[in-house]
Write a structure and sequence with these properties.
Length: about 280
Amino acid sequence: MNQETETKLKGIAQEIRRGIVTAVFNAKSGHPGGSLSAADIFTYLYFEEMNIDPKNPKDPDRDRFVLSKGHVAPGLYSTLANRGYFDVEDLKTLRHTGSYLQGHPDMKHIPGVDMSSGSLGQGLSAAVGMALAAKLQNKSYRTFALLGDGEIEEGQIWEASMFAGFRQLDNLIVFVDNNNLQIDGAIDEVCSPYPIDKKFEAFNFYVQVIDGHDFNEIEKAVENAKAHKGQPSAIIARTTKGKGVSFMENQCGWHGKAPNAEEYEQAMNDLKEEIK
């Protein structure tokens, strides 16, 4: 990746993070921590990788994306808004009565959302179904899914993984947002899913472990996954919960809490720092 592209993506990621904080602040509820940790993954997929068109969100040949950890909807919504699916100003209506931007993704009312999600563990099954459908229909689109590292404590994740590996769904690319924190604390203290990479390998996945905030590493991992045949891919992205907001970073208390006015101002100041 050249420097110009990397700088552009960093700038977009900052805008997405500002949108996340703004949405949650105006809702007075929501999930900022995991949205912020996944912002760079969202940015790369929606602005660099996926075959999508905001003007034709139901294109049957588009790439699919499933946000399995649906509570980080603010991250997906901010990404979709900045990509042109709807007005960025609408982020301020998150979770408000009558708003189409609900607390979890809704494929019936939100442009660009391919799967309603939020019940943890279920999104990967939907993504596997989409990938299988492409194979059966001889379609070239890929399916991407984003899982939480706490979410993979759910058994359905591994049922879906078993099926994907057995069916050799090499058009499926799964990201695990490995920020090491869930609502109750560190994942290795709540119900450790480690070693995550070895578990996916056991289900016949091609696995890579990367820095989930490094666009060059994300790009390389995705390109490797696309080139790899005969196995679905899992990209374990090591990230920082609350990335970009000083007082939210690595704090599980910010898993599902909105900032007050003073905290909002501090967060937005943190996200104004110069991109290098």
